[in-house]
Amino acid sequence: IGGHTTTATADRRRRVLFFPLPYQGHINPMFQLAGLLHLRGFSVTVFHTDFNAPDKSRHPAYDFVPVPVRGCLPKGSSDALQVTVERILAVNRACEAPFRERLASLLAREDVACLVADAHLLTLLDVARGLGVPTLVLRTGSAACLRMFAAFPALCDKGYQPAQESQLETPVTELPPYRVRDLPSTTSACHGVISEVISRLVTAVTTSSGLILNTMDALECGELASLRRDFGVPVFDIGPLHMLSPAASSSLLLQDRGCLEWLDAQAPASVLYVSFGSLASMSAAELVETAWGIANSGYTFLWVLRPGLVRGSQTSEAAPPLPDGFDAATRGRGMVVSWAPQEEVLAHPAVGAFWTHCGWNSTLESLCAGVPVIARPCFGDQMGNARYVDHVWRTGLTLDGVLERGEVEAAVAALMAPGEPGDGLRRRARELESSAADCMTKDGSSCTNVDKLVDHILTL
Ligand code: UDP
């Protein structure tokens, strides 16, 4: 034990600092990256806000530095996109002074190699650079999305955004396969704040000493090449982080692991998994259509009914109520949980298809598990991810327009039933699963890039 400790101490003189944006889809990849770099011998300090704070007890080897933001964040509203982007700006403002003070005091004690911060935290990256700390950026979305963000001001100048309803199907000829409807939804009053958040993100990347992306060459070869050409900073595509990293779960909500046992009792590829991630929401009427669409399909399902999923519900603490008669109609062929261990669920052989909102982590997790999807994006980068799923990777079908039970039923059947289109979607999903696995072999692109990233950090 003594020898082991000595080696560990010698290896761990250099410390990498991490600062995730406090949302589930950003916290997970940041902790996975921390796990990967910890495995390579770096010490880890995680700065985090007291809003959506991580559970320290799951990461006993890391140091944690809380930064207070509570009371400085805008309250929730019915527009999830607007409140999310406003909170991103508020987190930057609220953290600036306390982060500077905490970082300066840490620098007096520790040998810091660099800060890896979420691409949304430009102000904090600037603070670190001001104190002489090299910075790397983790962008938790796809390479395609980042390329679109970089082009966003020019696309707005050309009149693609803010968009009228009649423009939605127009192809964005400068950026195939995007259509206007796949760009961040800026038909609303929040076009200004979205543009600001996007432009800050691109600045955060271009002023950093390197960009880390949770994606891989096999999925986004052309998009990555274009970022390498246009951004002028080293780009490390090291995904899928959830499969390469030894990180413990960083789930903010308690995952109901009972559903894994329930899945054990189901036939292979027989279960539809339904989850809309941590932020997407729906109206009470859409919940009813979703429920009856799933019930009427006749397929077995596992549904994550997250508290707060329904807009305007009385309480965000309790799961929204299901329509009368739903339990009786689906008895014996369904399970509803409030939060699931999603990576394990998607990797379970009983899961045959995934109805998702197409957050980037969910998209990547489904691709790496070879599971075809029904894509129903809500906002932000989700429409672009759905477009790639539907049109480029062809591992899923998009369910758009007004949510209606008959359409849901048809989409579920299209994916789950034998024959086309389900067979083709399943085949391509399995092909991509295998390409993703190739990226993760010792000489694969992602593993090679992790080596390059470690070398790069040591030269900073
Ligand atoms: N997730 C989970 N349990 C669930 C639903 C989601 O652990 O029941 C995880 C999922 O594995 C993913 C993250 O939450 O890593 C959601 O990120 P994503 O980018 O898909 O969507 P977001 O929540 O940011 O919209």
How is this structure best described in words?
With 460 residues, the protein is an alpha/beta fold. It has helices spanning 2-11, 24-39, 80-107, 122-130, 143-157, 191-206, 217-231, 241-244, 258-264, 284-297, 326-330, 342-347, 360-369, 382-392, 405-416, 422-439, 445-459; strands at residues 15-19, 43-49, 63-67, 112-118, 135-139, 211-213, 235-237, 271-275, 300-304, 334-337, 351-356, 373-375, 396-398. It is built from 17 helices and 13 strands. Strands 3-2-1-4-5-6-7 form a 7-stranded parallel beta sheet, with helices on both faces. A 6-stranded parallel beta sheet has the order 10-9-8-11-12-13, sandwiched between helices. Helix 5 (143-157) packs across helix 6 and helix 5 (143-157) crosses helix 7 (217-231). The model is unreliable at 1-10 (pLDDT under 50). Uridine-5'-diphosphate (UDP) is lined by residues 23-25, 28, 251, 255, 275, 277-280, 304, 339-340, 342-343, 359-362, 365. This is Cytokinin-N-glucosyltransferase 1. Belongs to the UDP-glycosyltransferase family.
Would you summarize the structure shown here?
The chain has 460 residues and is α/β, with parallel strands linked by helices. Helices cover 46% and strands 13% of the residues. Helix 3 packs parallel to helix 4 (122-130), helix 5 (143-157) crosses helix 7 (217-231) and helix 15 (405-416) packs across helix 16.
